[in-house]
Amino acid sequence: MSNTKQCSAKYSGIGGQAVMEGVMMRNMEKFAVAVRRPNGEIAVVKDEYKGVGPKAVYKMPFIRGVFSFVDSLVLGMKTLNLSSDFYMEDENGAKEEKTAGDSVMSGVIMAVAMMLAIGLFMVLPYFASLLFKKWITEPHLLALVEGVIRMALFVCYILAISKMEDIKRVFMYHGAEHKCINCIETGHDLTVENVRAASREHRRCGTSFLLYVMVISILLFAVIQVSNPLMKVVLRIVLIPVIAGISFEFIRLAGTSNNRFVRMLSVPGLMMQKLTTAEPDDKMIEVGIASVEAIYDWRKYLEENFPDRQAEAI
């Protein structure tokens, strides 16, 4: 199999994320977490997640993006906890039982993390941009400076965490997740060899989503101008759902369209993924494959979407 190209991909409907020593894959309401345990075995758990909102809101443009963003946070925390449980089991399968207090603590941690993220990436750049007010008096230009600072903080944050050993392995599993999806979406059997040759960049990636959140926030705050400093801070918080909704629609379009213009707009996100993904080893690829096969019939998908392809030996 030659290296796959994004433009030849056909939407499969599956997505996922990297977790601690593993991969989570989701297909509609079903999801699976596969983890490589310390003893070398691959542990897989399957479950369902129906989302925080009623089904009707997931059909509403822009509104569905807000709920999908919340879903990704909730399911992300849940699957990270699951992967941690699997990985921390000893070789006899024993593990510490979770208590109600543990669940509350996980919720508190997620809430604190969200507040820190909002403060770091949405509020701090505004105050930092005020340092340039002496030289830049035009509000729209000052908003652009704020956006540049926000983007720089985001990139520096990614670069900083990428130096941590544990995060490096997470980024490798992130690469395995993308490669597995790209493998089948370009019409190839899900084998280690084929996955290894697939691209590790994908247009529906959460990294691209976050990048476009930054870009859209720059444009939005440059257009929406208020004079009251407190209102400016409030707007940067209350407009997060609006920004998330717009960003989601673009990522959704990018993941299902092969339009040349859409592909061109996707390039910055794909470039950013070079920082948040890394080439996985074959054992990581095996984990990714196990996660896909637990919730998705990729053979049926290939038969329906690539009827003229030649069957590959597995």
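The record above closes out task 2.4. Task 2.5 opens with a second protein, given below.
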Amino acid sequence: MSKVSLVTGGSRGLGRSTVLNIARHGGDVIFTYHSRADEAQAVVTELESLGRKAIALQLDTGSVAGFAAFAEQLRAALRDTWQRDRFDHLVNNAGHGDYAPIAQTTEAQFDKLVDVHFKGVFFLTQTLLPLLADGGRIVNLSSGLTRVCAPGWSAYASVKGAIEVLTVYLAKELGSRGITVNAVAPGAIETDFFGGAVRDTPEFNKFFADITALGRVGVPDDIGPMIASLLSDDNRWVNAQRIEVSGGQGI
């Protein structure tokens, strides 16, 4: 029986690379998108062209109030498409960036980062635990900025630091169900994250390239294959870890 993975924010960037690489490894995928249904459907079509089953579901990961209804949609998708009531892997990927020095960070910026990157991850995972199979996997997306300081990213890095702590606690509390939980911490990546800042702003790109051992910033396909491999049985004994995938950023 094929494994079924749920990836939040799977229609673009790191999420898109992740779902495509899960499919290339022989897995089926349910992924969420925030607002661009056309982009999501294009990814579904691409996954189906690889011979895999795929479903896209809309979800605002920063709105806890919608999680119960989403869980019911997910339950129906599992029943109708896979004739099962559990999925195997949860990848908490959805997110956004916000850049401001500490002295200029607004409460609204801070609250949105917390809602999407920490509170949303905490309560979506909690909501979905009854649907996650024993022996499953959870991967939470963190950031290389929890280790390497780049002024202006304090609030974003702080909520990612919270995710790394949550990862360890989830691993401890879910160990009795055989569920492993790890955090993947990408370095700077060329995506449309934060308006494509790393990809499209030469000074950002050069700053991070200059502090990376491999001499460049990353691209989505530096990350997606790694996450897909982490979900495989080959990595069943990797648990409660922060795994940085940054090309040697800041060493």
